[in-house]
Amino acid sequence: MPEGTVEGEAAPPQNPATTAEEDENSPEKFDANIEYWLSCIGFAVGYGNLWRFPYMLFENGGAVFLIPYLLSLGIIGVPMYYMETAYG
């Protein structure tokens, strides 16, 4: 006998359509934080950037460009990225 029922009383019917509707309406979630961050990076960085950046770096001054790039990335880029994902 199912729990919560009195002897002689029928159990309430289960409605499988209700649970399917709830599953469709519930938001999808990532299994781990790394999956979320990898998907964000995948949307932000394309293959063209991975191939073009080292070439442009070599052609336009080498590692001297890397210092201001990393500074601006840390001071402006990362906080802006966090703010954008927080709004989303």
Quick description:
It is built from four helices and no strands. With 88 residues, the chain is an all-alpha fold.
Written account of the structure:
With 88 residues, the chain is an all-alpha fold. It has a domain at 46-88. The chain contains four helices and no strands. The longest helix has 22 residues, at 66-87. The two termini are 47 Å apart.
Give the overall silhouette.
elongated
What's the total helix number? Answer: 4
Q: What is the straight-line distance between the termini? A: 47 Å
Low-pLDDT stretches are: none
What can be said about the biggest beta sheet?
A: none
**Strand content bin:** under 5%
Q: What integer is the average pLDDT?
A: 75
Please trace the helix and strand order, writing H or E for each element.
HHHH
> What class would the helix/strand composition place it in?
mainly alpha
Overall strand count: 0
- Classify the helix fraction into a percent range: 55-70%
Please give the radius of gyration in angstroms.
26 Å
